[in-house]
Amino acid sequence: MPWTKPVDIHNNTGHNPHYACVNSFKETHLHLARLFSRTVVYFRHPAGVQSAALATVCPAVTIECGRANEESSVTHAAVFINSALAMHHFPQQPVPDGDLDLMRTFAIIKVPRDASFSYDGTDAEFRLCPDLDRLNFAELEPGTIFGTFGGTGSRRLDVLAADNTPTAGGYFEYVGGEIRLSECADCLGYLMHRIGRDGGRISEQKPRRLVGHS
């Protein structure tokens, strides 16, 4: 009799590599995620997603398959589902650390609700780089430019702590009309860091930026 492996299939709005998301560090969950991608994002919020609801009773995973209407996304999802259905059991040994890029969101970046912004260089309080999503899942150095600011130059991006992680730092500096990353990260969406299997940040690693994660 087939055994249960719930899979939630998502698309993104930006340029992203295909990656998997889990809500548990159990090896069965990690093996299922690794079947889709070596890039695995651990998250606990938002609540109510299918994989989180079922993670307590069986291995479950969310797969992020890139942008909609891309043939490679459909093919990759189909190959993964067929492979998962063909599995009779999970390997007994843990997923090797070298086969897994485990990530977690530490900060959520938002434009204030009452602020103006643009991606095409038109005047706004936040003039964001038009190709910002090209930085997705890239390890970003301090000083990376996210855009420029206009208006009075006094507005700041909202930086919110994510997923019950410690309170987010500033992450950005506003100097000479430019919006620059002030510490290592991977978002205009989510700033991520590499983590260990205990969920803690591996501090020496550079943070990564994830835009269009939805």
Quick take:
The protein is an alpha/beta fold. The chain is 14% helix and 29% strand.
Walk me through this protein's architecture.
By secondary structure, the protein is an alpha/beta fold. The protein is built from three helices and 14 strands. Strands 1, 2, 3, 4, 5, 8, 10, 13 and 14 form a nine-stranded mixed beta sheet that branches. The two termini are 34 Å apart.
Proportion in β-strands:
25-35%
Tell me the helix content: 10-25%
Rg measurement, Å:
18 Å
SS class: alpha/beta
- Total domain modules: 2
Q: What overall geometry do the principal axes of the alpha carbons give?
A: elongated
Number of strands: 14
Q: What value does the average pLDDT take?
A: 85
Order of helices and strands: EEHEHEHEEEEEEEEEE
Count of helices?
A: 3
Keywords:
single chain, 214 residues, alpha/beta, five-stranded mixed beta sheet, 29% strand
Question: In terms of topology, how is this protein built?
Answer:
Layout: E1 7-12, E2 19-22, H1 27-34, E3 39-42, H2 50-54, E4 61-67, H3 71-86, E5 101-110, E6 117-118, E7 126-128, E8 138-139, E9 145-149, E10 158-161, E11 172-175, E12 178-181, E13 190-194, E14 208-210
Parallel strand pairs: 1-4, 2-3, 3-5, 6-7
Antiparallel strand pairs: 2-4, 5-10, 5-13, 7-9, 8-14, 9-12, 11-12, 13-14
